[in-house]
Write a structure and sequence with these properties.
Length: about 140
């Protein structure tokens, strides 16, 4: 995840409470072959006012990196964003050092902002491009 490891149980509880209070949804990811829990993905900061948007987030156990598993999961989660949540925009933020996540968002046709905000790259995907040549997996 894009946060430092928790220093104590209280800090972990605060992060858990943030996600409980936040609007959105997070899914556990389990490996198809053995059911092992390998990561999470989903939405947070869901703004339902027009135009509606939410930020997508994801994390994956390093032993599963580079196998296409997160791409498979995010395609399904993006479809939930469009079809179930009726989002107009899906946003993502990525640390500059996280080249693998940047590559994944590029493969999923997110558009990268030209400016850094809080030292993070910002990405956006717009529903209006679904089904066009711009939005192809």
């Amino acid at each position: 995840m894009d946060i430092e490891p928790c220093r104590d149980v209280k800090e972990a509880e605060e992060i858990i409470q943030f996600h409980i209070d936040d609007s959105g949804c997070r899914y556990g990811l389990f490996h198809k072959s053995d059911g092992e829990f390998i990561g999470t993905a989903g939405f947070h900061c869901w703004n339902q006012e027009s135009p509606s948007k939410a930020e997508i987030g994801f994390d994956l156990s390093p032993s599963y990196w580079g196998q296409g598993l997160m791409q498979e999961a995010l395609i399904a989660i993006i479809e939930i964003g469009w079809n179930e949540m009726n989002l107009d925009f899906i946003e993502a933020t990525v640390e500059q050092e996280n080249v693998q996540s940047q590559h994944l968002l590029n493969k999923l046709n997110f558009l990268k902002s030209t400016e850094l905000v809080d030292n993070l790259f910002y990405y956006t995907l717009q529903k209006k491009y679904v089904g066009t040549d711009i939005y192809r997996f």
